[in-house]
Structure prediction request, 372 residues.
Amino acid sequence: MRIASTKSICEIYAESEHEKVVLWSDPTCGYRGIIAIHSTALGPAVGGTRFWDYGCDKVASLDALRLSRGMSYKNALAGLPFGGGKAVIIGNSRTGSRAEIFRAHGKFVESLGGAFITAEDVGTTPADMVLVRQQTRHVAGLPDKSGDPSPMTALGVFQAMLACAKYRWGSATLNGIKVAIQGCGNTGYHLARELYNAGAELIVCDVNEERARRVANEFEAGTVPPQEIFGVDADVFAPCALGGVINDITIPQLKVEIIVGSANNQLLEDSHGTALAELNILYAPDCVANSGGVINGCRELLGWEQSETMQRIVGIYDRMLALLNLAEDQGLPPHKTADRLARELIAGTANKHMDGHGAVAQLSRRVLRSVY
Ligand code: NAD
Prediction:
């Protein structure tokens, strides 16, 4: 979905192929939120709640649309019985009454009657989800349940990086590999720990200097200022901050052979994935690489045992490797193969529901089996 910024929000919604986009406000506490439901074809739409000071409502809307579509693809490619959605709360997360804001958000989620299930994301915490839970049961990531998904997301990214190393270099380990990590927050920190334990060499950055220093001290990482991370002479670049960081400005700076990280929507535009392929830089689709968090949530959402969750997160290695090989067979960049497969999986189930024959659903199951 390429969205020209000159279009109105209504035009953008009309073109976005989302099932539903809902706005909600509660003037008594200054709450303003958007929930975008991209698809419920495979099950209820699952996706986090982002609390961010967007500065512009249109940017917030675009973020909700892109992130919710990404969740649909992520859940489909992970073989989970969920559709995709995303909530954004517009505002400064350091001002206002957090309790009132998240109770208002809980009412908003409840109003959708279970079509959308949320959890924490950038700017929100498991403690916030406790407040949401006071208003709705359609929330996961509670502290006494599956909790903070970040360590499991990072483990999944680590597995995806191992798969990329195997595909690119035939290497079974990351020992001695130099990795540049952008962002030392929840996922970046845990990814750094996994990589350090695996013998990788680390260069990190964060706009929050304290976070970068912590990783430097604990994992013997070098640091660079945030604007220099793209040009670091490393083997792998791991974007673990925000989306859109692979773009016209950053691509010419890259010296790495592989990009794999936790951030959602790393490619600013689809064309940037193609540009990476032309430069022979292997891009691991983020919707597969960072699926460990939502898989972890299945302990809470689907009652999975910890062992099953771990098996599926470690299985990101096989899924990524299979996807890279499939992309090569199809002669497509990996991000295009991932998008195509996700759309087939979603459309397959949608068609089954519509026509009752299940032919396309069978096809998508075959694709799923052969790929995963
Ligand atoms: P976080 O907020 O804990 O960490 C992000 C870090 O990036 C922060 O420390 C922030 O200061 C830093 N940062 C922001 N802009 C930066 C810049 N320009 N340069 C350098 N550092 C910058 O978030 P997180 O939970 O680690 O998530 C990171 C990304 O991974 C997000 O895109 C999120 O949507 C995605 N993701 C997270 C999870 C999860 O389990 N937490 C799961 C899937 C996807």
